[in-house]
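Input sequence (253 aa), recorded before submission:
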Amino acid sequence: MRSLRLAIGFLTIVPVSPAHAGPMAPARAYFPLVGLGIGGLLAGLDIAARQVLPLPVVGALLVAAMLVLTRALHTEGFLDTCDGLLGGRDRESRLDILRDSHVGAFAAIGGACLLLVKWTLLVGIPEAERLGLLFLFPCYSRFAMVAAMSVFPYARAQGLGTAFQAGAGWRQFAFALLTAAVAGGLLFGIAGLLLLVVATVVALGLGLWSLRLLGGMTGDTYGATNEVAEVTILLAGLILIQLSPGLTGAPFW
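Predicted structure, token format:
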């Protein structure tokens, strides 16, 4: 399916995109499904690596694997967003900083904190819920990007993100939401549906912040949405596991 191939080719290093990409908006529908595939690869790596390596090393491998699998696309967007939204004085200066390929102080600090927190959370997932959460958090973070794309306007007249706006409709959002909800219910029970709400809140919160400072979203803020959602979903998942283990339900495997 062309739209699925577009989503895989854009979100991962897998070279399956059609030769002539065309409109990218239909690919939005498959973002959570691609995220679920990324989660499956992380879960497989986790199972294999934990047979011979201590958990802190496995956590580092998982962080590195995410960066490689996604070409660090979303992480780069997060770094640019840190510099642009935190370092700019007004809308135009922020948009100029977002275009700049140089890494500033806010990006360096933000990137270090992001990777450290993500590693810590991955190491801290309990054994019983580990595989379910590894499958789920990349799925939900990519749904958060779809939610942001669907609700908020694009801040620029031209840019990478405009390809995902032309021809977009409610059907892509509905399919993405259905995919995420079914995956969450199967993998993590009621807690999975609660985490879907968390992912949506992250998307709306960052979208509103970008709307106030930039007049809308950009490709970089989409990437930042994914990264912040990943960390927030992992953190919220761990909190739910500690407070109400029964909410996670029985994993499908």
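Checked by second reader. DSSP finds nine helices and no strands in the chain.
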